[in-house]
Write a structure and sequence with these properties.
- The protein is 60% helix and 11% strand.
- It is built from 24 helices and 15 strands.
- β5 (378-383) and β6 (392-395) form a beta hairpin.
- The protein has helices at residues 2-61, 65-108, 112-119, 125-129, 143-172, 178-204, 213-218, 222-254, 257-261, 271-288, 290-295, 297-303, 307-318, 320-344, 416-433, 475-490, 519-522, 526-529, 577-606, 611-647, 650-666, 668-676, 689-700, 713-728; strands spanning 131-133, 141-142, 350-355, 361-366, 378-383, 392-395, 406-411, 446-452, 464-470, 498-505, 531-538, 555-558, 679-683, 704-710, 736-741.
- It is an alpha/beta fold.
- The strands form 4 sheets. The protein has a 6-stranded parallel beta sheet.
- α6 (178-204) packs antiparallel against α8 and α6 (178-204) packs parallel to α14.
- The protein is globular, with a radius of gyration of 29 Å.
- The longest helix is centred in the first third of the chain and has 60 residues, at 2-61.
């Protein structure tokens, strides 16, 4: 018997050796491929930054006289006037977009170990998380944002200075009467302001391309990039307003104001088109100012749809060769806009809707399993029973780990639209409670754009988190808490271990929001693995209400979907990297093809010389390339989604999610009690952030702390001031605080 065992052991030893060898070889191949991918990604990133720096340098040297005499003539000799301006100023942004697609595709192929290691490294750097300005017209501004502001201000000052010198030199060459000199100076200055505004316009549309590969590459979410669009919008419209105003004064001095305003030249600038474009821009600008936007959101929303009028008449005003300077940014925006339009055509199932005691509405929406999002994502929601035109942004309050086939949003009742939504849910609940059939008008259907957000879950980059929220600003942090609890329960290695949530609310009835997270059911033994503390400040109540301890149940309304598992469409820029990348690449190629064919076989052959018409044709090429080439990719993408969705079985998961949601609603009392055990509630007080930060410094020691704020501007300013103060006065054994803001109001 012993001999047979020895023989069997000898036979197994070579097999074990082969197995170990194969495993070792596979590991070596995996490490080698991972290294190759990392090197290629580094090369792509370096190339993108080189192209960007060269592009910015070209913009800076454009006002200089030598730019036309050297680079301008060389490019013009190869590509012509329109082609040279397009290659110099729109080409770089399109090339960067294509390279960003390649970088995102390679990021998809990164190994899980690489992603986990990256998750604990704050890749934003101190430039993005150190608040330089904390109060003023710009709000809280990080060091990186401050550098960007300085660059734009420097460019404007530089360009105005150079152009002013050129204007005076040009006028001094002619012996003109004083009045004529003044009027000529006005005309030239107006022209220069228009040129400077042109380069600001080249950047204006990039931050609002919600799912663009550019924002995904630099990992800046749309909700954060919106403020850059606001800043650029103010600067652009100031420059364009000065441009138009100086020309109006010049024409009035010449005594031909009406004739010039109504003039529409074939060769040269079409003045009337410019007037229409400027008036449209002014209308959008005025209605977007914060006081008007806050009080009359619908007016702001509807007037901002006039951007298409602004762009079309701007193209006809300046002609093709000037419009080619800004075409790149506009093309990227319309790429995203068309994709959003296609995604929003679908009606999405609402699995359930509930009204919390504080008046907040919770919606659980159906989604396909392959539509990814992060805990800090946004969606744009339209309820057609309330309005066919209004879209409202909301933070996702659920974690991707809550379930593959649904996501949740919390909606605070603040205005007419949200009040109507809550009323519709309550009416539907009453009909269900009375066992009445749902009336057609009482059914709720939704359309969704998104989700949009960070490319990576950046709350996992820190081992220690300080989450500061005001009111409904707790919503994204509930998603973060959900996500971390799931990861702790699953045994994920790199997750935050210390979490302090500071929450300021007006009334104690808002405490019911915490009951939407059932900590004990997600991670029963969380206290052994996670140090979680919640400090709640009820600012407008001096003491607990008499009825505290009585649990107010939420009103819940379950909706039976009309179509089985009708989830959100995956046609979104933040969706599949392969399909969204193909959409960008093929549309860009189509754009270049259409422009080239138009120039060779139509404009040159027929001898078309009208500036306004050529500008309109150039813009038509943008739309045609997106509709034809991009539309083909979207059709194939949609067919692929349909095939994938038929292979999935979402019904069981959807029902399980609905059952889980039912249980969370009926057990809110228990859930709230569970959370309150780690929740200290203080009445009649506001958070003392100096004391809070000092306590963290003593308890946590020398660590990296991610500070995330979601609340009104005053709250963000208070936290940012304390972050900056702690960083400037930091001792060696104290934490490093990284400030991150999450938009409270888009």
């Amino acid at each position: 018997g012993k001999g047979r065992q020895d023989e069997g052991r000898r036979e197994q030893e070579p097999l074990l050796g082969v197995g170990v060898g194969v495993k070792s070889k596979e590991t070596s191949i995996g490490l080698c491929s991972s290294l190759v991918v990392s090197v290629i990604k580094w090369i792509l990133k370096a190339l993108i930054w080189v192209i960007f720096v060269v592009w910015v340098c070209l913009i800076f040297i454009f006002p200089a006289p030598f730019s036309d005499q050297t680079l301008g003539k060389w490019l013009e000799a190869i590509f012509g006037i329109t082609g040279s301006l397009f290659v110099a100023f729109s080409g770089p942004i399109l090339i960067i977009a294509v390279l960003s697609v390649a970088h995102l595709l390679l990021s998809d192929s990164a190994s899980p170990q690489h992603v986990r290691k990256k998750a604990i490294e704050p890749s934003f750097g101190r430039l993005w998380t150190f608040p330089v300005l904390v109060d003023g017209p710009f709000g809280v501004v990080s060091a990186a944002e401050f550098i960007g502001i300085v660059l734009f201000v420097a460019f404007v000052i530089w360009a105005v200075t150079v152009y002013t010198i050129q204007n005076f030199n040009l006028i001094s060459q002619f012996q003109l009467p004083t009045l004529l000199q003044s009027s000529s100076l006005l005309e030239l200055t107006g022209l220069r302001f228009g040129t400077i505004g042109l380069f600001c316009l080249a950047f204006l549309f990039l931050p609002v391309a919600r799912g663009s590969v550019l924002l995904r590459f630099i990992d800046i979410p749309f909700e954060h990039a919106t403020r850059y669009h606001v800043w650029l919008g103010h600067l652009t419209m100031i420059l364009f307003t000065l441009h138009g105003l100086l020309y109006l004064i010049f024409w009035a001095m010449q005594g031909r104001l009406v004739q010039e305003v109504l003039e529409w030249k074939d060769i040269g600038i079409a003045n009337l088109a410019g007037v229409i474009s400027l008036l449209t821009g002014l209308f959008m600008w005025v209605t977007s100012l914060h006081p008007l936007r806050k009080q009359y959101f619908e007016l702001f929303f509807y007037t901002h749809q006039l951007y298409i009028v602004f762009v079309v008449f701007f193209a006809m005003h300046v002609g093709d060769f000037i419009f080619s300077i800004v075409a790149g940014g506009i093309f990227i925006f319309f790429l995203d806009r068309f994709l959003r339009f296609c995604q929003s055509r679908r009606t999405v199932d609402i699995i359930s809707a509930s009204c919390l005691p504080c008046g907040t509405v919770e919606l659980v929406l159906s989604k396909p399993a392959n539509l990814r999002y992060n805990a800090l994502s946004f969606i744009f929601l339209q309820v057609r029973e309330l309005s066919w035109l209004q879209w409202h942004p909301f933070s996702v309050s659920s974690s991707p780990l809550d379930g593959k086939f649904h996501l949740s949003v919390l909606i605070k009742v603040l205005g007419k639209w949200t009040e109507q939504l809550r009323g519709s849910i309550l009416n539907s609940f009453e009909e269900q409670n009375q066992e009445m059939p749902l009336l057609p008008h009482s059914k709720i259907t939704a359309s969704v754009e998104g989700p949009y957000g960070h490319e990576s879950p950046y709350h996992l980059m820190y081992e220690n988190l300080l989450l500061v929220a005001g009111g409904i600003g707790i919503s994204p942090f509930l998603a973060i808490l959900n996500d971390i609890l799931h990861r702790v329960n699953d045994g994920t290695l790199y997750v935050p271990r210390n979490i302090l949530i500071v929450w300021a609310i007006k009334r104690s009835d808002e405490l019911s929001l915490l009951a939407t997270v059932d900590i004990e059911s997600i991670c029963p033994s969380f206290s052994d693995k996670l140090n979680l503390e919640i400090q709640t400040y009820v600012t407008r109540e001096s003491e607990p209400p008499v009825e505290e301890g009585k649990v107010q149940k939420a009103v819940k309304y379950s909706i039976l979907p009309v179509s089985k598992g009708r989830g959100m469409s995956v046609l979104v820029g933040t969706g599949s990297n392969i399909w969204s990348g193909a959409y960008v690449v093929f549309s860009t190629i189509g754009f270049v093809i259409f422009v080239s064919l138009l120039e060779i076989y139509y404009i040159n052959i027929l001898g078309i010389t009208s500036w306004w018409y050529k500008g309109l044709l150039f813009f038509a090429c943008i739309l045609a390339s997106i509709f034809v080439f991009g539309g083909l990719v979207i059709v194939l993408w949609n067919l692929w989604e349909t095939r994938i969705s038929t292979m999935e079985e979402p019904e069981e998961d959807r029902k399980a999610a609905e059952l889980q949601h039912n249980e969370s609603i009926t057990s809110k009392g228990t859930s709230q009690e569970n959370i309150v055990t780690s929740n200290s509630i203080q009445y009649g007080r506001r958070p003392d952030f100096t004391a809070i930060f000092e306590t963290i410094a003593r308890r946590w020691g020398h660590v990296e702390v991610g500070v995330m704020v979601c609340g009104p501007p005053s709250l963000q300013t208070s936290v940012a001031k304390e972050c900056r103060s702690q960083s400037l006065q930091r001792r060696r054994n104290h934490p490093v605080f990284h400030f991150n803001s999450h938009s409270y109001d888009l």
